[in-house]
Amino acid sequence: MENTPIPDDxxxxxxxxxxxVPYMEAILLLREKRDVSWEAEQVARRLYLSEGQADLLLQxxxxxxxxxxxxxxxxxxxxxxxxxxxxxxxDRVAQAYITNLIAISTxxxxxxxxxxxxxxxAFVWRKDK
Length: 129
Hints:
Layout: H1 8-17, H2 21-32, H3 40-47, H4 51-63, E1 67-69, E2 77-79, H5 84-99, H6 101-122
Antiparallel strand pairs: 1-2
């Protein structure tokens, strides 16, 4: 694995759109197996999640335009970015994750940690000056 700088657009995408490592792993899984229709049970098994977590993850990916619900099937999804631009970005994000796993994972965790810190700070008692 390389330790190359993460391009700004990928950094921005990870910081603003990727809430967790399982979210990123789901993108990679569905992107790699484009010809497979995925249900929550299958995703849960592959990513070591509960079926409920996998179902929420698939719904979030659908809402974010990364996957789509397959017509005629209940709760089956396939990798299908809503635009060519998003598809190209997903290709680059996947490549960055593969070649720079630690840096991308750190970014994902920093996003979650930053939100937790903001929430914790909201409950800090401060003296008025």
